[in-house]
Amino acid sequence: MGETLLRLRVDTASAAPVLSLADFLASDNAAAVRIEPGEDARALLPHLGRIALILVSFPAYGDGRGYSSARILREAGYTGELRATGDVLLDQLSHMKRCGFDAFAPARPIAAEAAQQAFATWPDVYQKTVDGRSPIWAKRHGG
């Protein structure tokens, strides 16, 4: 089965060729990169201003290292498209969004309606997020 693309962004998806991290770092004009589990997302921090698209690979649903990569990139100020790709499951979408993902390319198609329902399942959160929502504890204490 081919990948389907679910985007929470309103801008046009980047058509730039996606390079591996090593190839991206060797280039001075690439605008899209793919990072794999075990690769350090912090290597991209000096280049965030020129990156339109970062794909974060999830080869297996149980490998959560991509969540950390997303947080690192968003907390460092990355505002471009951050796309989770691979073994991305419906029940992971809301958690991925909380970590900063704004696009999803699951290996097995997910219906857009089901994805929207997943994003709306937990409107309030307890942990700090990078998706703009205030955690419940902060709401209770005026934050």
Structural class: alpha/beta
Mean pLDDT: 88
Number of strands: 6
What spatial order of strands do you see in the largest sheet? 1-6-5-4-3-2
Taking pLDDT < 50 over at least 5 consecutive residues as the criterion, the unreliable ranges are none
Distance between the termini: 45 Å
**H/E element string?**
EEHEEHEHEHH
The share of residues in extended strands comes to: 15-25%
Largest sheet: 6 strands, mixed
> What proportion of the residues is helical, as a percent range?
25-40%
* Overall outline: globular
For the CA atoms, what is the radius of gyration? Answer: 15 Å
Number of helices: 5
Please render the helix and strand layout as text.
Layout: E1 6-7, E2 19-20, H1 21-26, E3 32-35, E4 53-58, H2 65-75, E5 81-86, H3 93-99, E6 103-106, H4 112-120, H5 136-140
Parallel strand pairs: 2-3, 3-4, 4-5, 5-6
Antiparallel strand pairs: 1-6
Describe the structure.
The radius of gyration is 15 Å and the shape is globular. 27% of the residues lie in helices and 17% in strands. The protein has a 6-stranded mixed beta sheet. The longest helix has 11 residues, at 65-75. It is an alpha/beta fold. It contains 5 helices and 6 strands; from the N terminus they run E-E-H-E-E-H-E-H-E-H-H.
